[in-house]
Structures are given as C-alpha cells and as structure tokens.
Design the sequence.
C-alpha cells in the first residue's frame, strides 16, 4: 500500500467523524495509526459523545498509543458511581429531593476533573487539528457544535447522557449528549465541504435479554441512536459530492463506559475492521485526484 | 471490471442488471448509463444487483438519483439479488429504509406487481 505524497496540489479535504458509543469509540484508535503510517493528514475531526473524547484527544495532539494509555489510566468505574441522592429523591418527589434541568443522577465533577487533566485545562485554541464536538441543547433538542472555550467542558457536555449526567452550561445554553441529536455527525462534515469523510459508527447489538432496568435503558437508547444515525447517514450520502467511508464497528456484547478492562478487545476489534477498510480509504483519496484531473 | 449494465424485460417490467463495481471513479459514467435507460417510457424498474461486487457511497448516490427520477415520473422500483456484503452497505448507510429490497428476481417481480396494482 503506497504512502500519500505530501504537498500534492489536489489532495482531498479529509474529515474524520467518530460517533457515540461510550468507551467503544476507542476502536477508532487503529484508524489514526493507519492514517499516520500512510502520511494521511486529517483536516477536521468531528466527534460525538464517547467519540468526542477520542476526536478531541487526537485533535489535541495525542498519539494513538497515548490515547489508549489515557483511556486505561483515567476512565475508572469510580467516575460513574458518585450518585446524587438529592436528585434521586427529587425524581421520586420525596422530601429533601430536588430536580431541575441542571441536575443528573450522577455527580459529574470527577469526570470533568479527569477530562481537564487529559486536556490540560486547555481551550480549543490549543487543538493541533481543528475539532468539533457535537452536543444537544437541552432546551430545544437541537444539535450544536462546539469549537471554542474549554475542551474538557465541551467533551463532557457531548458525553453527558441525561438524566444520568447533568447538562452543562456553555455560553448561556445548557448542553447534553450530542447523540440525542446526531450520534454520527456526518452531515456536519458534508455541510462543511469535506471531500473524503471517514465515519466511524459504533453499533452495539446485544443478543441476550437485559438483566436490569439500566441495561435495558442503555440498549434501547443505543438502538434508537443507531436508527437516527442511519437516517442521517443516508441523507449525508445523498448530499455529498465524493466519498463517505462508513466504518461500522459492531459489538455484540454489552460494554459500559467504565469497562476499561475491555479496552484491548475494543481496540483489537477496531484494528480488524480498519484492516478491511484500508483499501477503500486509500481508493477514495486516490480517486479524488483522478476525478479532479479528469475535470480539469 | 468497472461496471456493466444490461437491460431486459420480465413480465413487462424493465430489469436493469448492474454488475462489477461502482465508486467515485466510474459513478458519473454509471449515472449517465442509467439515465439513458430511464429515458424510455417505462415507469417500473427492477434493479437486479447480482454480480455487483462493490459499491461505495458515490455508487449509492447513483441509485438515489435514479430513485428520484423514477419517483418524479410516478414510477417505482425495487432492488433484488443483492449479495450479503452489498446488503450490509445498504444497511449501515441507512438505505435499507429508503429502497425496497427483495431476495430474488421472482420476489421482485411479485413485489412490483403488488406495487402496480
């Protein structure tokens, strides 16, 4: 497989989009290894939810090996176990309880702190590659993209699955998980005119019956996201002018955000699927040159 | 092989058999070829994709464009004889919700009769 020569005048504009899926978007790490290995530069990263963490890490300049390490080291079960009992009481309308749109079942402080450590308290100005983070406005239900301000806050908002995690206020608006509006923001890359769009979609299809309410809810939400994702991808393909390579990362077991011990398996799954897609990615880039030459 | 398109009739329906591969290197040619076929007076088409080995998003767009043309003329079309790999592409790109897929050519003919009645 040939390397893409640098400085080519007809290099396509390349965007990488990483969709939602908790910790599973870490399966996109081998994609970055492959792109680095072949000297393929990324012009824009767009991430949603767990995919926002991965995209922002890459945009911030972390190497693929560093990304795996940061995931393993920082994402622990304790980040997801700090229950806000006052909110729980509020949901049940019990005395001393309190619930409003600013609250969630879990306390987010530890997660935000970890994200601040990962992104060194930086703002989007520090990004090495322009990066957009998909969020959802909790008041309107509309999707929005964040590309300024604190990275940790934006990434948290993108991954804040309400009502588990509370919304966060950024620029006077309250934001939650971007997956509620656009689990795989391919349309955003199309609207911005990128020629080759590599979209990493996460699909979790668990065959076994859910063992708990939370598991059932997660599975239902996951299926609902997949359905939205497919509709938006179809529209994106219709509107686009060159190639969108959808890399479907399929998982058939339940993997929670805190299942960091499954990280090596997640990355290995990603590696196997990326291996099958390498030729398609290279062809889309090469064909763009051929197409441009033909039209000149 | 890039792409090859053959046209034949089954029970008054125009069957368009697409073989080979369609990606950004030949999608424009494939679209021109399909446009020529769609210019006739027929309204109902069956796209037989047996022998279609690979399709990229640019190739999928060719079928979306054809679909709009057919629907603009108050026609209909179904797709049949799709391999597992191609079916997966239709699935992950959300196009299973857009197109009508039938397993076999016979099933496609029956579906088309139902659509016409």
Sequence:
């Amino acid at each position: 497989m040939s390397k893409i020569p640098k400085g080519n005048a007809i290099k396509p504009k390349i965007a990488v989009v990483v969709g939602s899926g908790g910790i599973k978007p870490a399966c996109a790490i081998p994609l970055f290894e492959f792109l680095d290995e072949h000297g393929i530069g990324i012009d824009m990263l767009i991430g949603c939810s767990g995919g926002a963490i991965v995209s922002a890490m890459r945009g911030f300049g972390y190497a693929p090996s560093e990304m795996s390490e940061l995931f393993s080291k920082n994402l622990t079960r304790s980040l997801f176990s700090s229950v806000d009992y006052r909110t729980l009481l509020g949901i049940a309308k019990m005395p001393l309880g309190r619930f409003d749109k600013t609250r969630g079942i879990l306390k987010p402080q530890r997660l935000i702190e970890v994200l601040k450590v990962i992104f060194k308290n930086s703002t989007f100005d520090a990004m090495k590659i322009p990066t957009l983070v998909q969020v959802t406005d909790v008041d309107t239900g509309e999707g929005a993209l964040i590309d300024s301000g604190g990275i940790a806050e934006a990434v948290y908002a993108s991954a804040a699955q309400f009502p588990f995690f509370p919304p966060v206020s950024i620029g006077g608006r309250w934001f939650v998980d971007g997956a509620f509006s656009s689990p795989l923001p391919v349309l955003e890359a199309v609207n911005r005119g990128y020629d080759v769009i590599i979209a990493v979609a996460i699909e979790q299809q668990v065959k076994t019956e859910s063992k708990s309410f939370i598991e059932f809810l997660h599975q239902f939400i996951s299926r609902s996201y997949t359905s939205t994702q497919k509709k938006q991808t179809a529209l994106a393909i219709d509107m686009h002018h060159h190639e969108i390579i959808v890399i479907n990362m399929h998982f058939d077991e339940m993997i929670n955000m805190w299942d960091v011990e499954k990280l090596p398996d997640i990355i290995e799954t990603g590696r196997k699927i990326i291996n099958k897609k390498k030729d398609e990615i290279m062809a889309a880039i090469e064909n763009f040159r051929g197409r441009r030459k033909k039209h000149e | 092989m890039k792409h090859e398109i053959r046209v034949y009739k089954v029970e008054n329906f125009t069957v368009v058999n697409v073989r080979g591969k369609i990606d950004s290197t030949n999608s424009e040619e494939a679209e021109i070829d399909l446009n020529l076929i769609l210019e006739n007076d027929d309204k109902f088409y069956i796209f037989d994709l047996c022998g279609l080995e690979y399709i990229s998003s640019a190739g999928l767009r060719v079928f979306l464009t054809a679909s709009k043309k057919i629907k603009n003329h108050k026609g209909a079309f179904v797709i049949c004889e799709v391999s597992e790999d191609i079916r997966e592409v239709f699935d992950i790109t959300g196009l299973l919700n857009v197109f009508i897929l039938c397993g076999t050519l016979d099933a496609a003919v029956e579906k088309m009769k139902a659509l016409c009645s």
